[in-house]
Amino acid sequence: MKKVLSIAGSDCSGGAGIQADLKTFSAHGVFGMSVIVSVVAENTSRVIDIQDITPDMIEKQIDAVFEDIEVDAVKIGMLSTPECMKAVAKKLLQYKPQNVVIDPVMYAKNGCPLMNPTAVSTLIDTVIPLADVLTPNIPEAEKIADMQISTVSDMEAAARKIYAMGCKAIVVKGGHHIGNAVDVLFDGENFYHFETSRIDTKNTHGTGCTFSSAIASQLAKGKSVPLAVESAKAYVTMAIEHSLAIGKGCGPTHHFYELYQHGLSKE
Ligand SMILES: Nc1ncnc2c1ncn2[C@@H]1O[C@H](COP(=O)(O)OP(=O)(O)OP(=O)(O)O)[C@@H](O)[C@H]1O
Ligand SMILES: Cc1ncc(CO)c(N)n1
């Protein structure tokens, strides 16, 4: 069985973060592991507080996994401060895992900040160059590329600009756009567009976590980057179609075995 590690924050309400990652891994039939970087007291409506795990403890969790288990892919989510980023980057440079998917989480769906704004330069200098696939949403891509994004060609321009920062491929996600949900992948050579109709729901908490974890799962199983992104887009679309009206705010995506079994090939 392929083994995939999530390095991310914990969402106690279960819809995003480490919890969404582990559910996505299970639905893909890969063995999920987790290194917790921050504990977030949050729900579908708001973030109440964040407690970062110490850099030393982040490093020790990563050591515990890598000294014992062969890791086929890593998904990285919320890294709230430069200190957390540096601890994770140091260990990635030490263990050099394959198939690193980085979701540069800055805000929750309800608009609450999850990354300290002063950490953007550390994200660019130390984290982005470690990504095989980077998956910013539009507001994140705007911050990283320092430009406004209003059209699909702006998404392409931002993808080029961020690619030049050292990641091997980038997907600018179109969940925050209007009209169809278009994601733009750039691998340094080609652009690929993955487009679906926009699903009319407010229950999109954790879509980005679901998408990046699905990409990591598919890369672990040997798919190329474009095929892994295509399949992850199909997975997250189904997970949004079946999303749950849980809580008072933006409800979570749904991961269930039947969805995987009937909707996607098991491979
Ligand atoms: N309403 C929607 N209908 C169809 N697809 C959507 C919708 N919202 C998001 N998506 C898709 O979900 C995936 C995640 O994109 P999105 O931009 O929502 O990520 P995100 O903002 O990082 O998510 P989050 O921060 O909640 O984890 C993308 O493939 C995007 O196209
Ligand atoms: C812990 C965590 N990571 C990521 C997100 C982004 O949705 C969230 N809301 N919470």
Q: Rough shape?
A: globular
In percent, how much strand structure appears in the residues?
15-25%
**Main pleated-sheet profile:** 6 strands, mixed
CATH topology: UDP-N-acetylmuramoyl-L-alanine:D-glutamate ligase
CATH H-tier superfamily: Ribokinase
Following the backbone from N to C, one meets helices and strands in this order, namely: EHEEHEHEHEHHEEEHHH
Question: What descriptive keywords fit this protein?
Answer:
single chain; alpha/beta; three-stranded antiparallel sheet; 9 helices; UDP-N-acetylmuramoyl-L-alanine:D-glutamate ligase; binds adenosine-5'-triphosphate; binds 4-amino-5-hydroxymethyl-2-methylpyrimidine; 267 residues; 19% strand; six-stranded mixed sheet; 9 strands
Question: Can you give a write-up of this model?
Answer:
By secondary structure, the chain is an alpha/beta fold. The protein has one domain: UDP-N-acetylmuramoyl-L-alanine:D-glutamate ligase, CATH 3.40.1190.20. It has 9 helices and 9 strands. The strands form 2 sheets. It has a 6-stranded mixed sheet. Helix 3 (82-95) runs parallel beside helix 4, helix 5 (138-145) crosses helix 6 (152-163) and helix 7 (207-220) crosses helix 8. The site of 4-amino-5-hydroxymethyl-2-methylpyrimidine (HMH) has 17 residues, from strand 1, strand 2 and helix 7. It is an enzyme of class 2 (transferase). This is Hydroxymethylpyrimidine/phosphomethylpyrimidine kinase. Belongs to the ThiD family. Keywords: ATP-binding, Kinase, Nucleotide-binding, Thiamine biosynthesis, Transferase. One of its GO terms (molecular function) is ATP binding.
